[in-house]
Specification:
Domain HTH cro/C1-type (chains A, B): 6-61
GO molecular function, one term (chains A, B): DNA binding
Oligomer: homodimer
Shape of chain A: globular
Strand content of chain A: 5-15%
Pfam family, one (chains A, B): HTH_26
CATH topology of chain A: 434 Repressor (Amino-terminal Domain)
Structural class of chain A: alpha+beta
InterPro entries (chains A, B): Cro/C1-type_HTH, Lambda_DNA-bd_dom_sf
Radius of gyration of chain A: 11 Å
CATH architecture of chain A: Orthogonal Bundle
CATH class of chain A: Mainly Alpha
CATH superfamily of chain A: lambda repressor-like DNA-binding domains
Protein name (chains A, B): Putative transcriptional regulator
DNA sequence: GTCATAATGATCTACAGAAGATCAAATATA
DNA sequence: TATATTTGATCTTCTGTAGATCATTATGAC
């Protein structure tokens, strides 16, 4: 399983979904899906923007989960 | 830019595109696009299978490139 | 060298899911 | 309470991968 730590990273910074959508320009629905881990694919653009915005590496946002 | 190190990782193990396709069950076209970095999005399933197959973390396969 | 096999690149259709928008419900704030 | 904001759910549109196929190139056997 791929684990997406967006909710954790956002929580640490006390960011709301609407904040991230507003600040990055990424569609709110897309962020919602990643936040709730219902997304099954991701655009590289989105991945990049989120990492830059959150100041993290891809490996901190997405992790291989042993399940 | 998102940099995909699939070609490097495969090169280190002397793996062919057809090998990876055969061994993982991932469509050859999909691997070809990641290999040549023409893909603009990726399924989490594919990401996971490639990492497991290559024995690497997501951060080793995908990297944030400062361009 | 020739021939056969494998690997690769290119291209097509079909399909799945994100993008984008909208609506209603829930939450926060004055 | 009333208003504004945030969020979840849902819909249509659109993009790009999945999967297949064909042509070309590379590899290896003879």
């Amino acid at each position: 399983m791929i684990k997406c730590h967006l909710s954790k990273l956002m929580g640490e910074k006390k960011l709301k979904i609407s904040d991230v959508a507003k600040d990055t320009g990424i569609n709110r629905g897309t962020i919602t899906r990643l936040y709730h881990e219902t997304a099954v694919r991701v655009e590289f653009d989105v991945l990049e923007q989120l990492c830059v915005y959150l100041g993290c590496e891809i490996g901190e946002l997405l992790e291989l989960d042993v399940d």
